[in-house]
Amino acid sequence: MLFSTSPGVGHLLPLLPLARAAREHDHEVVVAAGASLSAIIVAAGLRHEPIGPGSIDEVARTLPELAGLTGRDRAVVMLRECFCGAVASAMAGEIPRLARRWRPDVIVHEDVELGSWVVAEQLGIPHLTVQATAWRPRMRKLAGRWLEPLRDRFGLEGVIEDERLAGQLFLTTRPAALRDPSAPFPEATAELRPIADDRHHPGVGAEPFRSRDGRPRVAVTLGTVNQHQVAVLRALIEGAAAAGAHVVVALGDDPAILGHVPPRVTVHPYVPMSTLLPAADLVAFHGGSGTMLTALAAATPMVIVPLAADQPDNAERCVAAGVARVVPLEEVDAAAVQAGVEAMLADPGHRERALDIALEVAAMPGPEVARERIESIVGANA
Q1: Are residues 357 and 369 in the same domain?
Q2: Residues 44, 160: one domain?
Q3: Is 235 in the same domain as 184?
Q4: Looking at residue 375, what is its pLDDT?
Q5: Are 92 and 70 in contact (CB under 8 A)?
């Protein structure tokens, strides 16, 4: 089984539980990904083939048109130039050498790794998708159009539609409460329970919140790629602290970049979300898919400041589900965050709804069921 991902931690992690389940069932597994993900892949006990750009940041630094863009505007440019451009072109160009040497029986890719489907069609290999980002039909239609040069370059024909990009199976990681009825998934869709397989990284111990004095506990993070957003981080930290909370910050960088922080705030270079969020009463973050799904599984309500990518869409779905409050990026300051934190903590209905959704997540089929589905697909294509 060849697992293929864009070069970002949030894109890799949704694949790891399934890749590990396959390996533990004696399948041979290779992960094709940028060099920046090597340590995580190897620590997970998997074989890494460095393919494509080293990291998403590496590509973004070459795109001057991103300057000043946020939210959905930035997401559109990143989809066109990064995921449908540099990453897709590199994956489509480099995976065939691995495929001809190693001969995978199936390719499993995350939903914005948009190059390996070309290889699958060229070589007659079945492929399928694991959802790593919000389901956005409009963006998928744009992707189909922007991938036409890649299709033509490799001598393929036909319209590039959702079903073609998704392959023979689309594994959604979203519980029912987060799905938009007006945006149906591909016909061949099945559920895959999201699992935060995020401990393949040096982090803190099992008790990120050390105080049990009755104050609320708020987790703060902007994920693994937004450390330059220091003003947003400080607003989240200062707002949560002003609400009287104990605050643990999972920074993804050297804590020195933040300077002085208020009392009852602890900053760590890294904390696994699977450790941090079950211990928190609330998470204040950017709306990234991995953190969002881990919070839902832990029944942890949210305050969200969407920055870019699929974060505005995630925020909308969480608000609609009754488990989040949004502070728009253009309005973010400590006072707005404090108000959001206090409002979420004061209403027990948010926690009750979060508990309902956590039960939905727990009931979704796990990676072993998905592995069996993949084996059936391979068998049918043999």
Answers
A1: no
A2: yes
A3: no
A4: 97
A5: no
* pLDDT above 60: residue 202: no
Residue range(s) defining the domain that contains residue 290: 217-362
Residues 51 and 150 in one domain: yes
Cα–Cα distance for residue pair 184/337, rounded to 1 Å: 33
Which structure tokens are listed for 324? 């989040």
The answer, as to whether pTM is greater than 0.90, is yes
CB atoms within 10 A of CB 380: 9
Nearest-10 crossing angle of helices 88-102, 116-123:
40
- Give the span between the Cα atoms of 64 and 35, in whole angstroms: 23
Q: CA-to-CA distance for 132 and 354, rounded, in angstroms?
A: 21
Would you tell me how many other CB atoms lie within 10 Å of the CB of residue 264? 17
CATH number assigned to the domain comprising residue 109: 3.40.50.2000
| Amino acid at position 153, single letter | R
Q: How many residues does the chain have?
A: 382
Residue with tokens 């020195």, as numbered in its chain: 256
- Domains: count for the chain: 2
Q: 333 with 339: CB under 8 angstroms? A: no
Residue 208: which region, alpha, beta or left (left: phi > 0; alpha: psi -120 to 50)?
A: alpha
Of 262, 236, 245, 223, nearest in space to 336 by CA: 236
**Residue 20 in domain:** yes
Q: Looking at the domain assignment, is residue 208 inside a domain?
A: no
Residue 153 lies in a domain: yes
Distances in Å between the Cα of 329 and the Cα atoms of 72, 79, 146, 170, 306 are 12, 21, 29, 32, 6
Reduced to 3 states (helix: H, G, I; strand: E, B; else coil), residue 3 is strand
81, amino acid identity: E
Q: Give the SS3 label for residue 274.
A: helix
Q: How far apart are CA 272 and CA 201, in angstroms?
A: 8
For every residue of 70-117, DSSP letters joined together read -HHHHHHHIIIIIIIIIIHHHHHHHHHHHHHHH--S-EEEETT--SHH
Distance, in Å, from the CA atom of 270 to the CA atom of 202, rounded to the nearest integer, reads: 7
Structure tokens at 291: 């953190």
Q: What is the DSSP letter of 186?
A: P
Note the pLDDT tens digit of each residue in 280-329. 999 999 999 999 999 999 999 999 999 988 999 999 999 999 999 999 99
pLDDT tens, residue by residue, 139-165: 999 999 999 999 999 999 999 999 999
pLDDT interval class at 254 (50, 70, 90): confident
Task: Decide if 247 contacts 264 (C-beta within 8 A).
Answer: yes
